Backbone:
């Protein structure tokens, strides 16, 4: 068994070298290891070239997505600006605007209630904005959030995140807490 292993490895090493081929009278060809090395080099070059091409395609698509995101963001901010009077008419004020810069940018508005509408005023306002989905959703979310009542807590502010679906976060504050401005 040991002899067979030795013989096989010796035979393969002779057959795989270019020197053996020239000794047998045949033109020297590259050995198996050189052939494997060339094949591996060709493979790596091919993979590198294809990866570079795909990376270029991906970069181009990412640029297109970023342009589209910027346009959507501008459109969302324009819609918010156009409807600021409606929001104020509903008794709310946009106090802060947050922009989360990420792969998918997120706009969050922080609102405070400055006055309450009667049910009649509220229904009239909803009728005016019934065809505008974004502002209608914002107003309904604000009204619902400010209607929540908890013992010993009051609604300090409401944040609405412009995502799909919109996300509303209600910030409650203990009733005994007073800001320095209130003192």
Residues:
């Amino acid at each position: 068994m040991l002899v067979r292993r030795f013989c096989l490895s010796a035979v393969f090493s002779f057959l795989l070298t270019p020197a053996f081929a020239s000794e047998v009278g045949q033109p020297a060809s590259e050995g198996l290891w050189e052939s494997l090395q060339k094949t591996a080099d060709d493979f790596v070059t091919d993979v590198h070239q294809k990866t570079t091409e795909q990376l270029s395609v991906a970069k181009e698509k990412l640029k297109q997505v970023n342009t589209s995101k910027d346009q959507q963001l501008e459109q969302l901010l324009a819609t918010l600006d156009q409807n600021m009077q409606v929001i104020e008419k509903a008794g709310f004020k946009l106090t802060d605007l947050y922009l989360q810069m990420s792969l998918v940018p997120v706009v969050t508005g922080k609102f405070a209630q400055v006055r309450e509408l009667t049910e009649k005023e509220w229904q009239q306002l909803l009728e005016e904005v019934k065809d505008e989905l974004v502002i209608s959703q914002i107003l309904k979310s604000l009204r619902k959030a400010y209607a929540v009542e908890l013992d010993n807590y009051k609604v300090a502010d409401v944040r609405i995140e412009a995502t799909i679906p919109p996300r509303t976060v209600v910030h409650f504050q203990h009733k005994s807490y007073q800001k320095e401005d209130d003192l």
User: Anything to note?
Assistant: The first strand starts at residue 92 and ends at 100. The chain is about 55% helix and 20% strand. The mean pLDDT is 77. The helical segments are 2-15, 18-23, 32-82, 84-89, 119-128, 133-146.
